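Researcher: I'd like a candidate sequence for this fold, 181 residues long. If you have to choose between options at a position, lean toward the conservative one.
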């Protein structure tokens, strides 16, 4: 399959990481490592500017916001996950649904979604309906299952061992975690 020439950000290679702010870094690292098998690679911090505007200028947060600690997590053969523990006088706790504008979820590819569901069940992780096989439309071939981290982060496990229907006629293919392409 050939890729049509697209205008792109100069020198773009791919997604390096997804950044998430969590209420407690130790608890989040324990969830990612202990439940999902995504090990912590490194931690650093704090990062703050007690007098200037670095935090606003660089990160778009309150000037006295403080990143207490950061952890970098390795997620299989996909992009990394960066976990932030912030403190800030204007910090909010968001509890978004997938239907909310600006909401997001992490989609984790698994080779055996039934085994992954059993694994989550055995560890007391509540899942939503599913696994749900998709049998029609361009993403036919997928099976999906949603669940949440203890602090509310939406997660999805997904599998499409035989590919998806759109691939048959696609000019550009999505990145495929099954083979790293």
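Model: Candidate sequence:
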């Amino acid at each position: 399959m050939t890729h049509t020439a697209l205008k792109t950000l100069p020198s773009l290679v791919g997604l390096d990481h997804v950044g998430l702010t969590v209420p407690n870094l130790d608890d989040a690292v324990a969830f990612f490592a202990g439940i999902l098998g995504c090990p912590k690679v490194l931690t650093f911090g704090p990062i703050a500017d007690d007098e200037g505007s670095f935090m606003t200028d660089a990160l778009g947060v309150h000037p006295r916001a403080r990143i207490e600690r950061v952890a970098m997590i390795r997620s299989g053969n996909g992009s990394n996950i960066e976990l932030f523990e912030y403190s800030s006088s204007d910090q909010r706790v968001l509890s978004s649904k997938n239907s909310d504008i600006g909401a997001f979820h992490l989609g984790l590819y698994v080779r055996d979604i039934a085994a992954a569901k059993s694994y989550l069940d055995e560890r007391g992780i509540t899942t939503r309906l599913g696994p749900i096989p998709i049998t029609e439309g361009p993403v036919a071939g997928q099976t999906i299952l949603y669940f949440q981290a203890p602090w509310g982060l939406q997660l999805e496990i997904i599998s499409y061992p035989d590919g998806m229907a759109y691939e048959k006629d696609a000019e550009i293919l999505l990145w495929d975690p099954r083979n790293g392409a």
